């Protein structure tokens, strides 16, 4: 029996999967969550074999929830459900160690079989998800992304330098490069542009 936590803000879909997945395989839904913060809390408490989590959720999204879980449970197996994997999202998820990606439009039988594969230690990315995400149009370097992400969280240049263990001048260089690449007039505008294009 594979135990799972099911996290999705769409109640109808979550409830349907909670009923259908156990009918497709030896799967037991031990808890449900309606947002990322709740998903992290429930997963750390229940310690499921597999966390099945929606990528797009209000507040704390799926990636942020997985990042939180990883701090305490670095080996937690994660299957991410998504409608549209924009360029950059798949890469960020893989960096976080997400083992599986399935389209939310997939049949419950397919989702159940992927849960089984992940539980066996394998990985799975739906072809349609990887096809959409393979076009990586992000011109920013990892360091430029780090600097913009902290900018979007409201940190000043000095704070960003401290957090990234860099000199302030270096951070300013990263930010000005990012502004040039995004054709933005300010670092905040560059951060907003990068977030809208899902590069952060």
Rounded radius of gyration (Å)? 18 Å
How many distinct beta strands? 6
Strand order of the largest sheet: 2-1-3-4-5-6
Mean pLDDT value: 92
Question: Which structural class matches the secondary elements?
Answer: alpha/beta
Q: How many helix segments? A: 10
Which stretches are low in confidence, meaning pLDDT under 50 for 5 or more residues running? none
Distance N to C terminus? 37 Å
Largest sheet: 6 strands, parallel
Beta-strand content: 15-25%
Query: In percent, how helical is the residue content?
Result: 40-55%
The global form is elongated
Summarize the helix and strand pattern as letters: EHEHEHEHEHEHHHHH
Protein name: Response regulator transcription factor
Organism: Kribbella lupini
Pfam family, one: GerE
Keywords: DNA-binding, Phosphoprotein
Kindly describe this structure:
The protein has 200 residues and is an alpha/beta fold. It is built from ten helices and six strands. It has helices at 11-24, 36-46, 62-72, 89-95, 108-119, 127-133, 142-152, 157-164, 168-182, 187-196, and strands at 2-7, 27-33, 50-54, 77-82, 100-103, 124-125. The protein has a six-stranded parallel sheet, with helices on both faces. Helix 4 links the parallel strand 4 (77-82) and strand 5 (100-103). Helix 7 crosses helix 9 and helix 9 (168-182) packs across helix 10 (187-196). The radius of gyration is 18 Å and the shape is elongated. Residues 133-198 form the HTH luxR-type domain.
